């Protein structure tokens, strides 16, 4: 079982421990590649290719690849578009519904492949382009509005704060790390909130000074973020103000620019 694999279902939980009762730390989307580091009866411990995240998953949710198939970067450029109807149909006629930003390995002429298994792609995929980031990132982010907050989530049916900005950035051609505490280590510092612009990421800390939340700036005074659900709130030097609750919910620590 060790070696190169790819996720073969729409979304697969990545867990902290090798049991179905364990906390979900992240999710794999269709087409995400992993290296299997360890194998137990039902479970395998994997490391993701796209963000080097580690966790346990059910090995039945993976399809084996050759080293050549795994490492062919040019063959993983196409992803599902920002819409609700991304469908694949395998040669048995079974339908898979994919979240936006799912990877379509070896896509060509309306088909993608996982190893030797063929899927017809029923909707038009695209290759994200970082050159169009500023033009498209707001529309991409707002697509996820009202998606419920889900710890470890990466889809519009449930997404956490860092999964949300990671997904929005991926759909616009930029790869981020998985967790807010990892994302904050990258990018260029924005000195003042007044200088923040569309697409910048704002990070928030707790009482101990640990980064626990991230959101994307829509302007110097508005943020879109996943907290309860994906929502737009005002932000100032104190942090995020939630008008429904009538209080500040997150304390601003730092703003970073990635584009």
Features of the shown structure:
20 strands, endopeptidase fold (from Nostoc punctiforme), mainly beta, 2 domains, five-stranded antiparallel sheet, 259 residues, 12% helix, SH3 type barrels, 4 helices
Q: What this model shows, in words?
A:
The protein is mainly beta and 259 residues long. It has 2 domains: 3-121, Roll (SH3 type barrels); 130-257, endopeptidase fold (from Nostoc punctiforme) (Alpha-Beta Complex). It is 12% helix and 39% strand. It contains 4 helices and 20 strands. It has helices at residues 67-71, 133-143, 161-170, 180-183; strands spanning 3-7, 11-15, 24-29, 33-39, 43-48, 54-58, 62-64, 86-90, 95-98, 111-114, 117-121, 154-155, 158-159, 188-189, 201-205, 211-219, 222-227, 229-234, 239-242, 247-257. Strands 14, 15, 16, 17, 18, 19 and 20 form a 7-stranded antiparallel beta sheet that branches. Strands 6-5-4-1-7 form a 5-stranded antiparallel beta sheet, with no helix packed on it. A hairpin with a 4-residue loop joins strand 19 and strand 20. Helix 2 packs across helix 3 (161-170). The protein is globular. The chain starts with a strand and ends with a strand.
Most strands sheet: 7 strands, antiparallel
Number of helices: 4
Q: What sort of overall outline do the alpha carbons produce when their principal axes are compared?
A: globular
Order of helices and strands: EEEEEEEHEEEEHEEHHEEEEEEE
CATH topology (level 3) name of the largest domain: endopeptidase fold (from Nostoc punctiforme)
Q: Which structural category do the helix and sheet elements fall into?
A: mainly beta
Q: Measure the end-to-end span.
A: 39 Å
Helix percent reads: 10-25%
Number of strands: 20
- CATH fourth-tier homologous superfamily of the largest domain: endopeptidase domain like (from Nostoc punctiforme)
The quaternary state of the protein chains shown equals single chain
| Mean pLDDT reading | 97
CATH architecture of the largest domain: Alpha-Beta Complex
Low-confidence stretches: none
Query: How much is the radius of gyration in Å?
Result: 19 Å
Share of β-strand residues = 35-45%
The figure for the number of domains is: 2
- CATH hierarchy, class of the largest domain: Alpha Beta
Family: Belongs to the peptidase C40 family.
Protein name: NlpC/P60 family protein
Keywords: Hydrolase, Protease, Thiol protease
Domain NlpC/P60: 130-259
């Amino acid at each position: 079982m060790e070696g190169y694999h790819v996720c073969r279902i729409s979304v697969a939980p990545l867990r902290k421990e090798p049991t179905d009762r364990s906390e979900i730390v992240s999710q794999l989307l269709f087409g995400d590649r992993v290296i299997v580091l360890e194998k137990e009866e039902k479970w395998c411990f994997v490391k993701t290719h796209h963000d080097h995240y580690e966790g346990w998953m059910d090995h039945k949710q993976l399809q084996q690849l050759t080293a050549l198939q795994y490492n062919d970067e040019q063959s993983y450029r196409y992803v599902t578009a920002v819409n609700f109807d991304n469908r694949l149909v395998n040669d048995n006629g079974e339908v898979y519904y994919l979240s936006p930003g799912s990877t379509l390995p070896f896509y060509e002429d309306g088909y993608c492949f996982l190893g030797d298994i063929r899927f017809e792609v029923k909707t038009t995929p695209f290759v994200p382009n970082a050159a169009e980031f500023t033009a498209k990132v707001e529309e991409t982010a707002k697509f996820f509005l009202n998606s419920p907050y889900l710890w470890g989530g990466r889809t519009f049916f449930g997404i956490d704060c860092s999964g949300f900005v990671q997904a929005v950035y991926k759909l616009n051609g930029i790869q981020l790390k998985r967790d807010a505490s990892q994302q904050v280590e990258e990018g260029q510092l924005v000195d003042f909130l007044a200088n923040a612009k569309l697409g910048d990421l704002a990070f928030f800390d707790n009482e101990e000074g640990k980064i626990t939340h991230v959101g994307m700036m829509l302007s110097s005074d508005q943020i879109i973020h996943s907290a309860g659900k994906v929502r737009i709130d005002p932000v100032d030097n104190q942090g995020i103000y939630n008008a429904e609750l009538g209080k500040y919910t997150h304390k601003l620590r730092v703003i970073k620019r990635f584009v």
